[in-house]
Protein backbone atom coordinates (compact mmCIF):
# COMPACT_ATOMS: atom_id res chain seq x y z
CA UNK A 1 0.00 0.00 0.00
CA UNK A 2 2.96 2.35 -0.47
CA UNK A 3 1.09 3.70 -3.50
CA UNK A 4 -1.69 4.76 -1.09
CA UNK A 5 0.80 6.90 0.85
CA UNK A 6 1.95 8.58 -2.37
CA UNK A 7 -1.65 9.30 -3.42
CA UNK A 8 -2.42 10.78 0.01
CA UNK A 9 0.71 12.93 -0.19
CA UNK A 10 -0.46 14.28 -3.56
CA UNK A 11 -4.04 14.86 -2.39
CA UNK A 12 -4.99 14.21 1.23
CA UNK A 13 -8.57 15.24 0.43
CA UNK A 14 -9.18 12.30 -1.90
CA UNK A 15 -12.05 10.15 -0.65
CA UNK A 16 -11.77 6.46 0.16
CA UNK A 17 -13.92 5.76 -2.91
CA UNK A 18 -11.57 7.74 -5.18
CA UNK A 19 -8.48 6.10 -3.69
CA UNK A 20 -10.02 2.65 -4.02
CA UNK A 21 -10.59 3.18 -7.75
CA UNK A 22 -6.98 4.33 -8.23
CA UNK A 23 -5.66 1.37 -6.25
CA UNK A 24 -8.08 -1.24 -7.67
CA UNK A 25 -9.34 -2.18 -4.22
CA UNK A 26 -12.32 -1.45 -1.98
CA UNK A 27 -13.01 1.70 0.05
CA UNK A 28 -13.06 -0.46 3.17
CA UNK A 29 -9.52 -1.73 2.47
CA UNK A 30 -8.34 1.84 1.92
CA UNK A 31 -9.90 3.00 5.21
CA UNK A 32 -8.38 0.03 7.04
CA UNK A 33 -4.92 0.78 5.61
CA UNK A 34 -5.18 4.49 6.48
CA UNK A 35 -6.29 3.66 10.04
CA UNK A 36 -3.32 1.29 10.37
CA UNK A 37 -0.89 3.94 9.05
CA UNK A 38 -2.29 6.49 11.51
CA UNK A 39 -2.13 4.04 14.45
CA UNK A 40 1.51 3.16 13.66
CA UNK A 41 2.48 6.81 13.29
CA UNK A 42 3.32 6.49 9.58
CA UNK A 43 0.74 9.18 8.81
CA UNK A 44 1.37 12.02 11.27
CA UNK A 45 -1.23 14.51 10.01
CA UNK A 46 -2.81 16.23 7.03
CA UNK A 47 -2.04 19.76 5.88
CA UNK A 48 -3.01 22.22 3.18
CA UNK A 49 -0.25 23.90 1.18
CA UNK A 50 -0.86 27.65 1.49
CA UNK A 51 0.46 30.19 -0.98
CA UNK A 52 0.90 33.03 1.54
CA UNK A 53 1.79 35.48 -1.23
CA UNK A 54 -1.83 35.29 -2.40
CA UNK A 55 -3.39 35.34 1.07
CA UNK A 56 -4.44 38.62 2.62
CA UNK A 57 -2.07 38.16 5.56
CA UNK A 58 1.49 39.08 6.35
CA UNK A 59 3.64 35.98 6.52
CA UNK A 60 7.37 35.28 6.50
CA UNK A 61 9.32 32.03 6.53
CA UNK A 62 12.99 31.37 7.18
CA UNK A 63 15.35 28.44 7.31
CA UNK A 64 17.59 28.73 10.35
CA UNK A 65 20.73 26.62 10.35
CA UNK A 66 22.06 25.84 13.82
CA UNK A 67 25.43 24.62 14.94
CA UNK A 68 24.88 23.01 18.33
CA UNK A 69 26.80 21.16 20.99
CA UNK A 70 25.12 17.75 21.47
CA UNK A 71 24.54 16.50 25.01
CA UNK A 72 26.58 13.55 26.23
CA UNK A 73 23.88 10.86 26.51
CA UNK A 74 21.10 12.44 24.48
CA UNK A 75 23.00 13.64 21.41
CA UNK A 76 20.99 16.16 19.41
CA UNK A 77 17.60 14.95 20.70
CA UNK A 78 17.48 17.16 23.78
CA UNK A 79 18.12 20.46 22.01
CA UNK A 80 15.85 19.43 19.11
CA UNK A 81 13.03 18.77 21.62
CA UNK A 82 13.46 22.21 23.19
CA UNK A 83 13.46 23.90 19.78
CA UNK A 84 10.36 21.96 18.64
CA UNK A 85 8.41 23.37 21.59
CA UNK A 86 8.46 26.92 20.18
CA UNK A 87 5.21 27.78 18.38
CA UNK A 88 7.12 29.64 15.64
CA UNK A 89 8.95 26.43 14.65
CA UNK A 90 7.38 24.41 11.83
CA UNK A 91 10.06 21.74 11.49
CA UNK A 92 13.39 20.63 12.92
CA UNK A 93 15.75 18.26 11.12
CA UNK A 94 19.19 16.87 11.88
CA UNK A 95 21.39 17.39 8.83
CA UNK A 96 24.90 16.81 7.59
CA UNK A 97 27.33 19.52 6.54
CA UNK A 98 28.54 22.67 8.23
CA UNK A 99 25.49 22.98 10.51
CA UNK A 100 23.73 20.37 12.64
CA UNK A 101 20.04 21.35 12.64
CA UNK A 102 17.75 22.88 10.03
CA UNK A 103 14.87 24.77 11.63
CA UNK A 104 11.96 26.08 9.55
CA UNK A 105 10.38 29.10 11.25
CA UNK A 106 7.28 31.18 10.41
CA UNK A 107 6.19 34.59 11.62
CA UNK A 108 4.22 37.65 10.58
CA UNK A 109 7.34 39.42 9.32
CA UNK A 110 11.07 39.05 8.81
CA UNK A 111 11.49 41.28 11.87
CA UNK A 112 9.43 38.86 14.00
CA UNK A 113 11.62 35.97 12.89
CA UNK A 114 14.81 37.94 13.48
CA UNK A 115 13.65 38.76 17.02
CA UNK A 116 12.73 35.10 17.63
CA UNK A 117 16.23 34.01 16.56
CA UNK A 118 17.98 36.72 18.58
CA UNK A 119 15.91 36.49 21.77
CA UNK A 120 14.77 32.88 22.01
CA UNK A 121 16.73 30.56 19.71
CA UNK A 122 20.33 31.83 19.84
CA UNK A 123 20.47 32.09 23.66
CA UNK A 124 19.53 28.41 24.15
CA UNK A 125 22.15 26.42 25.99
CA UNK A 126 24.04 24.39 23.41
CA UNK A 127 23.44 26.68 20.43
CA UNK A 128 26.86 27.70 19.11
CA UNK A 129 25.98 29.51 15.86
CA UNK A 130 23.02 30.36 13.64
CA UNK A 131 22.56 31.30 9.99
CA UNK A 132 19.19 32.71 8.92
CA UNK A 133 17.92 32.41 5.36
CA UNK A 134 14.61 34.18 4.59
CA UNK A 135 12.36 32.72 1.91
CA UNK A 136 11.56 35.43 -0.63
CA UNK A 137 9.46 33.49 -3.17
CA UNK A 138 8.26 29.91 -3.05
CA UNK A 139 8.21 28.31 -6.49
CA UNK A 140 7.37 24.75 -5.46
CA UNK A 141 6.52 23.10 -2.15
CA UNK A 142 5.41 19.59 -1.31
CA UNK A 143 5.66 18.70 -5.00
CA UNK A 144 3.17 21.43 -5.90
CA UNK A 145 4.08 24.35 -8.18
CA UNK A 146 3.23 27.77 -6.82
CA UNK A 147 3.90 29.45 -10.19
CA UNK A 148 0.83 30.44 -12.20
CA UNK A 149 1.65 29.51 -15.80
CA UNK A 150 -0.49 32.23 -17.37
CA UNK A 151 0.93 35.00 -15.18
CA UNK A 152 4.58 33.93 -15.28
CA UNK A 153 6.01 36.53 -17.66
CA UNK A 154 9.42 34.86 -17.62
CA UNK A 155 7.92 31.97 -19.56
CA UNK A 156 7.48 34.22 -22.60
CA UNK A 157 11.14 35.22 -22.62
CA UNK A 158 12.26 31.57 -22.29
CA UNK A 159 10.66 30.56 -25.56
CA UNK A 160 12.21 33.45 -27.58
Q: State the helix count.
A: 6
Taken as a percent bin, the fraction of beta residues is: 15-25%
**Largest sheet report:** 4 strands, antiparallel
**How many domains is the backbone divided into?**
2
> What would CATH call the architecture of the largest domain?
2-Layer Sandwich
Order of helices and strands: HHHEHEEHEEEH
> What is the top-level CATH class of the largest domain?
Alpha Beta
List keywords for this structure.
160 residues; alpha+beta; Alpha-Beta Plaits; 2 domains; 4-stranded antiparallel beta sheet; two-stranded antiparallel ribbon; 6 helices
Give a verbal description of the structure:
The chain is an alpha+beta fold and 160 residues long. The chain folds into two domains: 2-39; 60-140, Alpha-Beta Plaits (2-Layer Sandwich). Helices cover 34% and strands 21% of the residues. It has helices spanning 2-10, 16-23, 27-39, 77-84, 110-121, 154-158; strands at 60-68, 89-94, 101-107, 127-134, 140-141, 144-145. The strands form two sheets. The chain has a four-stranded antiparallel β-sheet. A two-stranded antiparallel sheet has the order 5-6.
Amino acid sequence: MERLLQLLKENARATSDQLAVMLDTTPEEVEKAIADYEARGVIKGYQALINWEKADENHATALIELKVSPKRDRGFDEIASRIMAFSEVESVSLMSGGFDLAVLVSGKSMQDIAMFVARRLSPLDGVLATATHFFLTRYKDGGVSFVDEETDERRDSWSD
